[in-house]
C-alpha cells in the first residue's frame, strides 16, 4: 500500500490519535499495559488505576464468564481485528457503550499484544435504546388495540351476518305473503264476479215472479233475499279487496326496503372485512419497523 505524504509525520499523527481518541493497550495475558487519559476518563478511572488491570474487569461478569468472551480473545490472539459497539463496565458499575476497534500488534509475525482505539457512544446508544423502547411500547399498544379492534370487528361481522340471514329469511317470508295476498286478490275478483252474476239472476227472477202474479209472490221473496245477500257479499268482497290492496302496497314497500337493507349490510360486511385486512397490513408494517429499530440499535 502506498501513502502520499501531506507534510504530517507519524509522530504528529500518533499524538493526534492519542489526544482525541480513547486508546488502550493489552498484553497477551489481557492486562492493560498502556491507557491514555481519554479512555480512563470515559470509564471513570484514573490512568494509574487501570495499569495492570485485566480486561475482564472492564466487562460485566455475564459476558466475561461466557464462551463468547473466550472466543473473542482467541480470535484477537489469532491475529484477527475486531470492530463494533461493545458494552463495558464503568468503575461505578454503570454501562458504557464503546465503538471499539481492537487491533492485534504483530512482531515478526507473532501477536504480542492488542491495541484498541475507542469512541464513547454511550449517549447515542442510550438515545437509540430509548427510541427502541418507545417503538416497542408503541408496537405493544398498537398490537393490543389491534387485537381488541379486530375482535370487535369480527364480533360485528358475526352479528351482521346473522342480521343478513334474518333479513333474507324475512324477505323470503314477505315474498310468500305477497304471493298469498295476490292469491286472495284473485279469489276476491272471482267471488265478486259470482256475486254480480247472482245479483243479476236474482233480478231476473224477481221480474219473472212479478209476471207470474200471485203465484210468484213467494219466489219474489226468495229472489229479493238472494239479491240482498249478493249485495252484502259484493260489499264485503270490496272491503277485502281494498284491505288486500293496502297490504300488498305495504308489503311491496317493505320488500324493497328489506332488500336495500340487505344490500347495505352486505356492503358493510365487505368493508369491515377490508378494514381487518388493512389492520393486519398496518400491524405487519409496525412490527417491521420494530425489527428495523432493533437492528439499528444493535449496529
TrEMBL record:
Protein keywords: Transducer
Q: Which Gene3D superfamilies match?
A: Methyl-accepting chemotaxis protein (1.10.287.950), PAS domain (3.30.450.20)
Domain Methyl-accepting transducer stretches: 151-299
An example of a Gene Ontology BP annotation on this entry? signal transduction
Q: Where are the transmembrane segments?
A: none
A Gene Ontology CC term for this entry? membrane
Molecular function as annotated in GO: transmembrane signaling receptor activity
Q: Which Pfam families does the record associate with it? A: MCPsignal, PAS_3
Family the entry assigns: Belongs to the methyl-accepting chemotaxis (MCP) protein family.
Task: Write the protein's name.
Answer: Chemotaxis protein
List the source organism. Kurthia sibirica
